[in-house]
Structure formats: C-alpha cells, structure tokens
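Hi support team,

I'm opening this ticket because the web form for multi-chain structure prediction keeps timing out on my end. I have pasted the exact lines I submitted so you can reproduce it. The total is 697 residues across two entries, so I didn't expect it to be a heavy job. Is there a limit I'm missing, or should I split the entries? Thanks in advance, R.K.
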Amino acid sequence: MEKLIEIKNLHASIDGKEILKGINLIVNPGEVHAIMGPNGSGKSTLSNVLVGHPAYTVTEGEVIYKGENLLALSPEERSHAGIFLSFQYPVEIAGVSMTNFMRAAINAKREAHGEPAMSAADFLKLMREKRALVNLDSKLANRSVNEGFSGGEKKRNEIFQMAMLEPTLSILDETDSGLDIDALRIVAEGVNKLKRPETSTIVITHYQRLLDYIKPDIVHVLYNGKIVKTAGPELALELEERGYDWIKNPQ
Amino acid sequence: MYNEKEYIGIFEQHRKLIDEPCAPLLNDKRDNAIRLFAEKGFPRTSDESYRHSAVAKLFATDYGLNIGRIENSINPHELFTCDVPNLHTRQEYIINDCYYRNTKNSTILPKGVLIGSLNDYAKSHAYMLSSYYNSLAKEGDSLAQLNTAFVQDGLLVYIPQNTEIEETIQLVMLLRSNIEIMSNRRILIILEEGAKANMLICDHAANNKQSLSTQVLEVFLKDGASLNLFELEETGAENNRISHLYVRQEKSSNFNHCNITLTNGFTRNNTHVMLSGEGAETNLTGLAICDKQQHTDNNTLVEHITAHCTSNELYKYILDEESTGVFTGKMYIHHNAQQTNSQQTNRNLCLTKCAHMYAQPQLEIYADDVKCSHGSTVGQLDENALFYMQQRGIPVDEARHLLMFAFAGEVIDNITIDALRDRLHILIEKRFRGELNRCKGCSLCK
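Hello R.K., no limit was hit. The queue was backed up. Here is the completed structure from your submission:
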C-alpha cells in the first residue's frame, strides 16, 4: 500500500523558536490517526506546518504527500491536492458571505484540476446537501463567514466546508474544543459520514471523548516537539486515566 | 507656471466674454468672488485643511478655458451609453462645462419641476433662484470663489412642494478635449417642502491631456424634503477634480450622499452640510479606491445648528501602490444643537508600504446633551483571514480581492438604487482585477 503522507525528521520554528524537533509520521490511505499531548507540545504547529502557514519556517526534514514534496506547494495548492485543516479557531471574515466564499473555494479547486466552474444550480444543490450533514442552518450559509456564529456553529461550519471540498487528508485541530455533547456528536458523525476507504484523518485532541466517536487506528503522543509514544486506540484510554505526567517524566 | 495673478488676469481680460452669454444672476456674483479669490489666493499646504493636498500645483498648467462657449460637436449619445442595466434614468449631460440639451428625454416631468441648463433658468427664473444661487458657496474657500468667478453654466434641479420624481435623475459629466482643459461646473438643487428625488452624478473623461474640473453643488432641502445623491468618479490619471458640495437642510429633511472615487488623478471633495431645521438627518458615505499615484481627499464638515438632528458618516479608502488618501471629518455641534446624534467612521486599508493615509477626525461640541462618536482606523488586510481562505483553496490574489470587496461592500450596500448598487459591485470587482486600470472614458460603457 502506498503511503498517503510521510513526515520525515520535521523541524519547524516560529519567530526563531524551534517548536517541532524531529517529527516522524506515516499515514496510509484509510487510516485515522490521533495525535494527543499536553498543551504547548507542538500539535497545532504540526497542523499549521502541514497546511503551509506562512508564520512557520521548516528548518529541517521533509514531507512527502502522494509521492510529492508537500513543502514546495503553496497553501492553496496543498488544498487543491486534498489537504484540509479544520481550524481550532475558525476565522471570522466580515462581509464575505459563506456562499461566495465556498463558491470561490470549489471553483478554484475545479480550475486547478482542469474542470469547468460549477453551475450556480449545481452549486446551491451541493450546498444544501452538505449542509444537512452537519445540521447547519440555511441562514448561516447566507451570513458572512463565521461572523456571529456560536462556537459550536463555527466547528460545524468547518466540517461543512470539509464535506464540500471532499479532502483526501483531513486534519482536525481540536475540533472538539468548545463543543457541548450534542454538538460534538453531530460534528463527529459528520466526519464519519464523510469517511471513504481512501481518505485519511489526523485528529488532534486533548481528550478521549472525541475518540469515542471518531475511532482512531493509531494514537500518538506529541511532547516537546517530538512523537514520544505510538500505540493503538487503547493508548488514548490510558492517557485519559493517567494524564500526561508519566510521559513527561518517565520513571 | 500659472499662479493667482494669471487667473485674475484672464478673468479681467475676458470679463465681457464671460458675462456675455450668461444670466445677470451668475454675472452679479463674479466681482465679489474674484475679490475673495485674490485676497485668499490658492490654498497652500500651510493651511490646515489643505495640509496633505497641494492643490495650487494643479492650477499651474496653462489650461484652455472655453469662455467663448464654442459648441463642441460631441454627441454624448454616441460617446456615452450608460452601462448600468435596468437603471432607468433621466439623463442630463454636461460636456466639459457646457450643458447639452438631451432631446431624448421623453417623459413628461410633474408640474413645476425644472431640470435643465442653470444659465437658462437663471435668466427665465431669475427672481426665484436669486435667494439660492451662491448663497452657500459665497462663504466657501478660494477655490469655490474661483468657480463662481468663472462659471458659465451647469444644471438646475428644482422640485416643487410634495412632488416626487420617481425616475433617477442622472447627470453625466463628460470631459473630452485634445488640449489641457479647465472646466468649471455648477449644480443647483432645490427641493421644496416634502419633495423627493434620487440623483446620480457620473464623472467620466475621455482625454489624455491633463484636465482640471472645479464644481460647486449647492443643495437646498426644505421641510420634509428627501434627496439621495450618488456621485461616481470614473475618470483617469490625467483628470483632477475639485468639488464643493454645500447642503442646507431644513426641518425633518433627509439627505443621503454616497461619493465613490473609482478612478481619478487628484481629487478633493469638500462636503459641508448644515443641519438647520430640527429633526433633519444626513448620511454621508464615501469610498475611494486608489492605486498608482492617485490622490483622494474627502473633507467633510457637518454642522449641527439646531436640536434633534442626526448625522452619520462612513468613509472608506483602499490604497494600493503609491496612492494617497486624506480624510478630514469635522462635526461641529452648535450650542443650541441639543439632543444631537452624530456618528463618524473612517476605515482605511493601506495595501503597500508606499501608500499613505492621513486621517483627521475632529469634534467640536458646544452643546451639553449630545451623543457624538468618531473612530478612524488604518490597517492592512487580515492575514488570518487570507490564510484561512488559502487553506480552502482560494488563490491568495482572489482572497485579497474578496476581502477588499467585502471592505468596500459596507459603503456600496448603502446605495438604495438596486440597479446601481449591483452595477457598482461589478465595477469594483473589475477595478480590483485591474480591468478598470485607467478610464477608457466612455468606451468602457459600451
């Protein structure tokens, strides 16, 4: 089986401060990986580096995605290649309607793949269809992107966008934070419905509870810029029970 | 280099020629105006209000002036077809500074409505117009005085009591010349009690030589009158404009103004609103989109003279490359103007390090029971929003356009004529894509 993404000895820094200190990770098609770890261990940095956030500098290592050098691609090219990040803090964009935003995104992707722009009727139909997946109110779709959305609505909106763009690799950065139990279930069910045999997911979370819904194949613990432990789903349960101290201070 | 002396010289030398085709009402104001102009001279950058706008240099060129009123053979119908679909307007034309009688206006105006050449009406309705013409502009700065001294024609809009003009009155000002030209235009708008009108003034140019237009608009809104006035400047880098808009509002009158500078060279827009009747409301909005070395200066003064009046201001600038924006907004609340509600917002985007924005919000309050606020910001596009859009696959240039478009939208959305608003959305999008890089004059509109 060909690897979907392979991260080799990845080092990255922000404002001259090294955050990632040699990450190694392979995700195969169809796999769900969970990355857990205490605050400040580099989880969000990893997701930002993978999507090409300009504030981070890769100082060493490489990332091969679908056989290509991912780090050479612009953020939008990575998106067109099927990488999607569900933001921990979705950005509010005043004055840009969800509809215009999504249409620009969909058509940019289609153009990159040599396909014609989607007709208005097809686009609206697709919006309706995908909205239902996460119970996103049609009123929200007419509003500005994330503006005035509640915390839960913002996260549902992220999954709605994921449904629209049908990524190959989805990175969910603390998608569970700020969600009540019902919202968590809706979001997780949305993610599960979107799962196809060839798509992979990296779930970044602090807590086991999201993993009750989105079942990981492999669980990693990131600490101090490195993956310090990798195991099966039982690791998440153990962390829930014992916390991170035993990883921080191995006896 | 032309200075004040040359202009006074031209005026004195050609006085007879200037007066000859004109109504006494226009001619009577010239002596005082040229005297005031001579006293004050061109505003200098040492004058606080012109600190960032060096206007004197605009007058240094040896412009042609059509004092002899030589008819030009331009047919505006061939040159200009308004490209706003579904915008059914009554079109009036001013070519350079000459009024052009549009024989295609077929609709019959309601009784008593006067729309047409200011000079003609100043002859036929001299008594009626005498209490209005120049009554506000006479207090204006030296550039308004220069306009009064030289002006020979323009447009009059007079709407009698309780009369509503449903069709938007569109004034198309076309500039067409093979030489450097100066044009002086005058617009007088009078709405009697309860009268209502929508008006759109478009500034177009089709010349590649330098031009300078001065225009003075005097607007009188009587009790309960309501005017929506939209101005769209869509000229080119060679075209410079100095505009003075004076508005006097009586009781419960309503004035909505939107001034859009889409393409231009150097623009100075002075707006002076006097709220002199209780319950009057004024909404001033403006949008300037500048690049290259464009310069746009909006200078507003809102005077709350009586109680219970409302004023809102929203001015936005998008400055790219080496362009300059200037905004001065003064709210002056007289001591009788209790229960004033006055708000001013100015937001600016500087897209490059070479773009400059000078913002000066000012408040002078002499009443003690008022609600006044102002705010001004200068910033860049939101990097987080840009990245968010890029992550969703939107190319960075497209993302920038979307954000700029959203920024401009707040002003455009105030335009109450649907067809015009929709068209402006398209024009602004084109502008951001560089497709309106320079005004192709009116070929654009074909």
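A quick check on our side: The domain at 5-248 of chain A is CATH 3.40.50.300 (Rossmann fold). Let us know if the file doesn't open in your viewer.
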